[in-house]
Amino acid sequence: MTHAKSLIAMSVIFVTAGSVVAAAPSLPLHRAGLWQQTMTQDGTPNPNATSQICYDPASEVKISAMGDQFSSKNCPTKQIVHNSDGSWTMSGTCTFQQGWKTASRATLTGDFGTEITTTIDATTTGAPAPAMNGAHHTVLVQTWLGPCKPGQRGGDITTEDGSKMNMLDESPNGGAPQN
User: Residue 10 is inside which H or E element, if any?
Assistant: First the structure.
């Protein structure tokens, strides 16, 4: 996974998980175990954006705290609503160190035990990679696969190309993933 792609993926995870959990402690955590995450952007499946993440309650609380720290620093305007149908809606604007901005609205649906679908509509300006700029529709589907694999610990991510990292070992400011 390239540095830019991992920054985007980590930002989505941190902002989504951290903002919601920090603002609404009653939001259910992922079911402990291995989750597959697949991302589609602007209607096109991205083979480089499929990963597996090992969650346990302790690591998810830490990841959420990191996300809240990242979100508080970069996303001063945000709104989080728990909808009557059980879904969650978040909206806000984030500004990043390089001066680029993203205004987004995300909706989370699912039971958090077997599947979570996050739909994000975002508009980015001033990003260093031109393809990141403009309006984008992203769908992130997370599906529970079962227990984490032997040797995995909470926060471990394995990408489709075999790269591995642990989100607890990464800085929310964008440390490079480790292979």
Answer: helix 3-13
